[in-house]
Backbone:
């Protein structure tokens, strides 16, 4: 998914890209919004964007100190994207974009409510990772109820357990 696939939220998209460009990304961000507003697709796209950020020698010159502590790149290296459209074009050129867009990038982790597959189980999110990837690909604007129906929860309540 790319920024162009997210309906509206133009100001928020630009603000997120500027946070990365100015090296002012917090250790945690909470994407909260009403059902159908696009918080989940925006969070997924931004996670992909952050995971694909260059490091080491290939780092853009305008990035300053890295988000992850690497030294700044030498002058003359391409600048970081400044708009959502530039970010989309840049992301599509990255080798890891295919993994990130299929939600299999090793740096992107998910936690979501699940149900026990059989009585007495203590399920964990990775028990349903295949279904989750299919769900977010098909229904990026889906909600928790849609997710639980997708995995056949019927009347059961989904939980994110301590495990």
Residues:
């Amino acid at each position: 998914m790319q920024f162009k696939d997210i309906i509206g939220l133009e100001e928020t998209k630009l603000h997120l890209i500027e946070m990365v460009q100015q090296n002012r990304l917090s250790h945690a961000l909470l994407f909260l919004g009403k059902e159908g507003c696009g918080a989940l697709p925006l969070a997924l796209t931004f996670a992909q964007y952050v995971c694909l950020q260059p490091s080491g020698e290939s780092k853009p010159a305008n990035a300053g100190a890295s988000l992850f502590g690497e030294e700044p790149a030498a002058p003359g290296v391409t600048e970081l994207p400044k708009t959502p459209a530039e970010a989309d074009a840049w992301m599509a050129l990255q080798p890891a974009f295919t993994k990130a867009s299929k939600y299999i990038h090793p740096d992107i982790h998910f936690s979501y409510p699940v149900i026990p597959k059989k009585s007495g189980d203590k399920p964990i999110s990775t028990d349903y990772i295949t279904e989750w990837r299919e769900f977010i690909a098909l229904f990026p604007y889906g909600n928790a109820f849609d997710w639980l129906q997708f995995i056949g929860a019927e009347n059961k309540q989904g939980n994110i357990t301590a495990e």
About this structure: The chain has two domains: 3-101, 110-163. The CA atoms of residues 35 and 143 lie 6 Å apart.
